[in-house]
Amino acid sequence: MNLSTASGAREASAYNFAYLDEQTKRMIRRGLLKAISIPGYQVPFGGREMPLPYGWGTGGMQLTAAILGADDVLKVIDQGADDTTNAVSIRRFFARTAGVATTERTVEASVIQTRHRIPETPLSAGQIMVYQVPIPEPLRFIEPSEQETRTMHALEDYGVMHVKLYEDIATFGHIATAYAYPVTVDERYVMDPSPIPKFDNPKLDMSPALMLFGAGREKRLYAVPPFTKVISLDFEDHPFAVQQWEECCAFCGSSESFLDELIVDDAGSKRYVCSDTDYCRQRTERLEENLQ
Amino acid sequence: MSAAERLQPALATAEPLFSARDLTRLYGPEKGCQGVSFDLYPGEVLGIVGESGSGKSTLLSLLSGRCPPDRGAVSYRGRDGQWLDLYSASEAERRTLLRTEWGFVEQNPRDGLRMAVSAGANIGERLMAQGVRHYGELRAAGLDWLSQVEIDPARIDDLPRTFSGGMQQRLQIARNLVSAPRLVFMDEPTGGLDVSVQARLLDLLRGLVRELDLAVVIVTHDLAVARLLADRLMVMRRSKVVEAGLTDQILDDPQHPYSQLLVSSVLQP
User: Same structural domain for residues A188 and A278?
Assistant: First the structure.
């Protein structure tokens, strides 16, 4: 009797909680535990087909599905914005398959799946960031052989990483790599922090939040545990520096956030706005309150 | 007192830099190389000559740690004076050796260079691998080595693919010598270059070898190259060393029938 009602309830929802079956989620959690124990190390996992194409965040979604609990609050951002197609559809996917609460506010979220930004609002302990990663291997640019890059990671043979930065300085006069800027995690593994702007790199260092990275196409995951040293590579005479803007956000007037450049008319006039929509909205609301 | 006698005590007291014992790697009967033993002293240039398929390149990859032998041992005396058995050392030690105290000049510069990055980055790579993190120093080393191998320093930011074959080969040599190695392996460094470029490259190599007191193992099938560069020769045929000795001795008075054939088959213009 009980059995039949239970199976009846399952049929009604049609999907298992958070889409993936329990065995897959356990497999991914095992991988995540390994990744957290060895910060920056790329752990292979048996990636599943997700109901959207590779490159749209399948890696991040599988990690989110594996760690999501019924009382979690999920936030999804795409280039900082809560309201773009990728963010909206992934948020709706988990609201439908897991029935979890969703939010657009960074402080309220317990799990934040992100495509290529870290929120401007400082993260707190207990929050989990899930990154969507297109290419997990930072050495691939210089060494296409997978076997060779694994050996290089194992032997900590990272001299070639600086070859890329050297080329930047030789060509442009400064380190022109602006996103996917390589970092050393916990003084051991060199890691690609996914294509976040290098503006966000300092936020990885000693962050109280747990950072998880999932690459769906390449079936790899890696992690940065809370309070881990994350250092961006650089040269002594060309130290690491983040992007800076002379302008402020056109909406909220912030001069500290990462700004997107918008072309607003045919004459090519430009406006700059915060890429983090939630941060911008909070600031605008606070400004309006103060005015009243 | 003849020159040979004067040399003798110096060699007896000096300790070898590199030693190979009974090196064997066979891919089939008489295919590969077998039973090769020799000692190499600091600053000495050893030439390995022989026909195609005689096992020269196999021997070179055994010596340089690229391919484990079926039998035998290779050992190297490091800067600290400690002997290191190449194939019982860890892979990490082997790789460190290969990018610090050793160099390897490939026959085809495309195999030895990173074609996608500039000449300066190619030269600086070994230094960066050794932990140099100062762009100015890397740049200075790049400019210095380009002029040492007679490439216009203004081309430091050009990609190697825009260089001629001879320049690529010289760039590869600079890339290897920048870390001040003590032992360099060369696999037919002048193969595939035209004769006048060959002559210049050989001249350059000879100068650098003498100047930096390099020990070199050079594989070649060109006896002129061997005559010009090598102090000592090993003649290989069908996977075995058939004759070994001083270069002049072997080229002027070959004893083994195959060495005689090799020497007599050189075209005289």
Answer: no
